[in-house]
Amino acid sequence: MKDLINYDKDNIPDAVIAKVSPFLDDPLLEPAAIAKVSQALVPIRVWIFAMIGYHETLKIVNPMRAIAKEKGDELAAVMAILSEKQAQVKAILEQVAQLKADGDALVAKAQSLNENIEDCGKKLIRAEKMISGLEGEKVRWTSTVARLTEEQGFLTGDCLIAAGMVSYAGPFIS
Asked: What is the per-residue pLDDT across 106-141, written as a single tens digit (0 to 9) for each?
């Protein structure tokens, strides 16, 4: 029983199958004929037919298993390449995101600088207007400074005349 349970059903030699195959069609191996002789042999007959059927199935399945294993190995190799490429794509996308953020920062800085240029241009225009408006005042201020410098020399005499007038016209006439 242990030999039947532990039988290596995946590696049944073709020679064994070739030896057993002529007996499969024997009318003496029919389940009813075997049951007349021994009820214990019926399950063994079923087991033998099952093993032969399993062997025939393995002839079909084993090449498919080999192909499946080969394709599985190919799939594993492709998946390894895919994961490597996905890691590269992720790194590139991170670089793109960083470059986009840097680009957005530079665009914002450029916009700020353009606004500063516009403000400075407006201030320059206003300053030019003020300077051109005050150009006429320069002539007047220059002449005023020249006149006041000249009058500074007469300040002492003017003060003396003003003091005399205040004394003469003041409350103390006598």
From this structure: 999 999 999 999 999 999 999 998 888 888 788 888
The HSE-up count of residue 163 (CA atoms within 13 Å, CB side) is 6
- Which position has the token pair 């039947």? 4
Helical segments of 6-40, H only: 14-24, 31-37
Q: How far apart are CA 40 and CA 47, in angstroms?
A: 12
Residues in the chain: 174
Q: Which of 57, 73, 69 is nearest to 17 (CA)?
A: 57
| Amino acid of residue 3 | D
CA pair distance 31, 38, nearest whole angstrom: 10
- Does the reported pTM lie above 0.70? no
